[in-house]
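Input chain follows. Return structure tokens only.
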Amino acid sequence: MTITLVFDLDDTLYLERDYVRSGIRAVDLWARSAIGLKGLADAAIRLVESGRYDKLFDTALTMLGVPVDPQMILQMVSVYRGHVPDIQLAPDARAFLSAGHDYAFALISDGFSVAQHRKVDALDLPRFGINPIICTDDWGRDYWKPHSRAYEGVQAAHAGRSTRFIYVADNPTKDFLAPRALGWGTVQIDRPEAIHPRTAPSDMHRADMAIASFDQWSHERILALFDSIVERSQIG
């Protein structure tokens, strides 16, 4: 039976920092055209480089001495989420997806629906045979990870083809609880450039294995991972 590898998207297949910068540039273009505001991109990127992501546009406007108008912020956020992103697959991810493995591929990603679908299109993920591609926000915020619906949906889609599943993702706060409960293998990709914290809040949140990039992928380690899952379930 085939092993199905199920990928997260942000900071797993590409660097989310690139999406953030792409979105900032789109909002900057809108601000220059719609309200004659210059310097927004420079201010917002300085904030991002210092690790500030919360209320990004509010803070950037304050830095520029511009009153924060809630309607203006809503418009900026809409432009940000709806823009066509200028992003690329991480080189190791592109090489891995293109390598002709015997694995089957699927994807589960959180985040606002329009933004996630634009990322999927920009990265042209279907051409790698990734199916299904599930953006959990299509069902609403209640179904974002760690809800199990998306994982169960992948299992149903691959029924009769795969009995072993692995979720590859970056954020242990939410990514690994549901697949572990379903008996999947879990692999944390711990990219140094990733945005979100990557420290597991408990043992139950921790992945079975960690890699820094897909260059460290080893099929032998994956097979051993499933042996350890069987052993863990027998002990439990």
